[in-house]
Known about the structure:
Elements: H1 2-20, H2 30-39, E1 41-45, E2 50-52, E3 61-66, E4 69-74, E5 80-86, E6 91-92, H3 94-99, E7 106-109, E8 113-118, H4 120-129, H5 131-162
Antiparallel strand pairs: 1-8, 2-7, 3-6, 3-8, 4-5, 4-7
Amino acid sequence: MAVEFQTVRTEQRAIIELWGRVPFLADVGDEPIAALAAVAVRHTYAQGQTIFLEREPVAGIFLIEEGVVKICRYSIDGREHILTLLQLGETFNDVAALDGGPNPACAVAFTDVVTWQIERANLQSVVTRYPRLAWALIENLAGRTRHLLGVVQDLAARLSLIHI
């Protein structure tokens, strides 16, 4: 019994450390990180397995413990467009977890993958208790928005050159 309890404590400590290594959560403090880890659920996926599909109801926010996750969308004619490949310590599906809308893209295990998922309701509960966590999520989303605006501007400039 003592060995089992010690194993649970060691695993919980490892989960807390994993959430604590997420760059945008670096300054939120130990208590909010422990609260996130407490509501996170571990999932494993085999290479090629779908984690969630675009337009399905929000699947929550995910953190990668192991492996590589492909974030992609499919065109009407079925062509796959890989948006990004994510790995250890990166989160995904933040947008849907925050706004409650459907998943904005598909997530597929590019390799064998281990993730930690927090459902939207649990995320809301933790964020309500820890305003620093709320700000960290907002600042992360704002940073991603700035990056995407730069990408859109670059693509618009390239398209205008093609039409000249």
